[in-house]
Design brief:
Blueprint lengths: L3 H21 L6 H8 L3 H7 L3 H28 L4 H28 L1 E2 L2 E2 H17 L5 H21 L5 H14 L2
Antiparallel strand pairs: 1-2
Helix pairs in contact: 1-2, 1-5, 4-5, 4-6, 6-7
Length: 182
Amino acid sequence: MTDLRVRRTDRAIQDAFVKLVLARGFDSVTVSKIASEAMINRQTFYKHYTDKYDLAEKMSQQVTNAYETMLKERVALAKKNVSFISAFNTLLPDIRQLVATYRNQILVLRAIHLDRFDFNQSLRDHMSWAVSQILNQHPSEFEQAILDSLSIGMMNYVLKVGKLPSTDEIERSISHVLKLFA
């Protein structure tokens, strides 16, 4: 188990990073600024991360691990023929916890676009995996594009509004979308 002081320092560094990126943008953030905001010295920062890119990648891994755990639960429910709405209700506490815990980190990570780091692509890859498990085949490019838009759109909504839609809202929206294609 990690020492509590190490976890507190990690949290302070990540919180400082999120605050600075939201306020100034990723390119303007430096290790010195992160250390100052976290009230640590630069050497302490370097004991935890090699640079701001490493910090972003490790934060991304934390979020995607939580997301992947939830997707695995969704796949397991689908394999038991649990409907989407029932699965949503089952996973609702986990989804709420994910949003509450990682909302600002997700906002920051989605805003960082680098050659070696693409959080949005990582989320799409995880979603594609889950869909292929549920359908027992890889989705076509068209299906994947629709699912990407749907999942990213839902995420944008939740991040903007700060809360999940109700089950009734989801059922109504699915019904309306199906009417569009009927």
